[in-house]
Design a protein that fits this description.
Arc Repressor Mutant, subunit A, DNA binding, HTH arsR-type domain-containing protein, ArsR-like_HTH
Length: 107
């Protein structure tokens, strides 16, 4: 599959778009994301795998946890981030992620 096909396949899923909205503001682990969705950690992991394969997120292992963040060098993410600012579904998720980022930075 071509890279562009992988990106469109990744973005075709609403849960993956919601995950990207969270990750656009803060770095999170699989378990952090699973808490925010009505999904198991393995289901979130499968979505993250698709996003990573498409080059939309990157991961870093720290101890027993793997943290994911948006791949800021990806043009699609830049465009998607803009779309989330005006999207009625994405905007609240970004706002929640910003608040989480602030709480994490303080604590």
């Amino acid at each position: 599959m071509m890279q562009l096909d992988l990106v469109f396949d990744a973005l075709a899923s609403r849960p993956r778009r919601q995950i990207l909205a969270y990750l656009s503001e803060v770095e999170l682990s699989t378990s952090d994301l699973a808490e925010r969705f009505a999904m198991t950690a393995p289901a979130i992991s499968r979505h993250l795998s698709v996003l990573e394969k498409a080059g939309l997120v990157t991961s870093e292992r720290r101890g027993q946890f793997v943290f994911y963040k948006l791949n800021g060098d990806n043009l699609v993410n830049t465009l998607t981030g803009y779309a989330f600012e005006v999207c009625p579904v994405g905007r609240p998720l970004k706002q929640e992620a910003r608040a989480l980022k602030k709480r994490t930075a303080k604590g």
